[in-house]
């Protein structure tokens, strides 16, 4: 365990530090870059609307790769780090569903043609992964330098959980303000913007002058919102481990399937009526977990139960399952009630 004199927090629920060989880092980067390059060259470069079969096939393939990586970490580095990977990966997948909801709003605001949407998603995911890598490095430096940083991370996640609850209770329709964030406004002020789409081109030339297309502007909008998502995502990851390798790998493999998941769940998200409450529960759990880790560090509240990697993973799985099942049951009940009301109205008309 690290010295208290340094002001460094010990690894969350982990007595030893993970020893990652440089070859493992290189292999991870090669695999991630290779998969994204294959995705771009074989599918994204040619504009088309992916079928359900194509999306499901690739999503299952990415899940299989993630399970293989988790199995390798379990075998090579021990069950603690394997469980930490699966916990972070599961949380990132859960948060990705909320990301998809915002992406749908943004692309709807920009009226992105269906065939071009996966190109926007691809570059949005690449931007997200780059931003998260930067935040992982910064987060590791902060955690190793400031013992009280877990209090800050925990409080931020609790505030985010509260925001999710408010959003879940709100009955107002999405305004699409995410599509007009700071980066989009900056681009509109500094760059000439074409009014119409020009196929899958990001920049067009008219009368000797170059214009950015709405396609590139939409990517900028998603890149800006990716920055906000990273602020939620990375502190949540640090709630399970402070190992950069695990956090980056879990984020990368969760983001890989985000594009395919978009086309699979688009139109089904409205059935997840308790999504915001489920995400709030996950974020609140991680927030309290981080705060208790910090309290344990200062020998405060040492009598509180300390979550092991396995118990943390089980909590996340239970929250996800309860959220999905409760949402589907509620959606079915609402649909049945709406049908009965329509039948009653039709009967009254006769």
From TrEMBL:
Membrane keyword on record: yes
InterPro entries: Integral_membrane_TerC, Integral_membrane_TerC_rswitch
Membrane topology note: Multi-pass membrane protein
Highest taxon above the source species: Bacteria
Keyword hit for Nucleus: no
Alphabetical UniProt keywords: Membrane, Transmembrane, Transmembrane helix
Protein name: TerC/Alx family metal homeostasis membrane protein
Source species: Actinotignum timonense
């Amino acid at each position: 365990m690290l010295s208290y004199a340094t002001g460094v927090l010990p690894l969350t629920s982990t007595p030893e530090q993970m020893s990652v060989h440089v070859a493992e880092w290189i292999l991870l980067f090669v695999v991630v870059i290779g998969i994204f390059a294959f995705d771009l060259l074989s599918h994204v470069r040619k504009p088309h609307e992916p079928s359900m079969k194509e999306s499901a096939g690739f999503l299952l393939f990415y899940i299989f790769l993630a399970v293989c990586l988790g199995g390798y970490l379990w075998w090579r580095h021990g069950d603690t780090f394997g469980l930490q990977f699966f916990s972070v990966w599961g949380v990132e997948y859960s948060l990705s569903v909320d990301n998809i909801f915002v992406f749908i709003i943004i692309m709807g605001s920009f009226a992105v043609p269906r065939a071009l949407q996966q190109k926007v998603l691809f570059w949005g995911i690449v931007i997200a992964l780059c931003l998260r890598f930067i935040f992982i490095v910064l987060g590791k430096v902060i955690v190793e330098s400031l013992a009280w940083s877990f209090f800050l991370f925990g409080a931020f996640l609790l505030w985010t959980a509260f925001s999710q609850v408010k959003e879940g209770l709100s009955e107002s329709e999405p305004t699409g303000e995410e599509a007009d964030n700071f980066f989009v406004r900056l681009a509109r002020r500094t760059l000439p913007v074409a009014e119409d789409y020009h196929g899958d081109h990001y920049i067009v030339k008219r009368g000797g002058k170059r214009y950015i297309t709405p396609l590139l502007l939409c990517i900028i909008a998603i890149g800006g919102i990716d920055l906000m998502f990273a602020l939620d995502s990375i502190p949540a990851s640090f709630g399970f481990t402070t190992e950069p390798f695990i956090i980056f790998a879990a984020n990368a493999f969760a983001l890989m399937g985000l594009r395919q998941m978009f086309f699979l769940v688009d139109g089904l998200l409205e059935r997840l009526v308790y999504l915001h409450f489920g995400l709030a529960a996950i974020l609140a759990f991680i927030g309290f977990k981080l705060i208790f880790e910090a309290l344990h560090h200062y020998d405060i509240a040492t009598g509180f139960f300390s979550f092991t990697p396995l118990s943390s993973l089980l909590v996340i799985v239970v929250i996800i399952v309860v959220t999905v099942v409760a949402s589907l049951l509620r959606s079915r009940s609402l649909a049945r009630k709406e049908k009965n009301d329509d039948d009653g109205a039709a009967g009254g008309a006769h």
